[in-house]
Hints:
Layout: H1 2-18, H2 32-45, H3 49-63
Amino acid sequence: MQGMNRRILLTLYCIMRYNTPMKKSMSIRISSEAKELLLKLVQHLGISQTAVLELAIRQLAKQENLR
């Protein structure tokens, strides 16, 4: 099951990456714990920190019916 979720996330990332306008630069502050989790997700999924954050934001927005 987890392998399938990972494949879906990676597929969605590839679709999003090529179907979105140019990205804007921004800076954020996060806790040490959040940074550690972000790095673990980067390693686990094999994608960039930016991609992990974009996926997380989009997933939460969808979960909250903000689309």
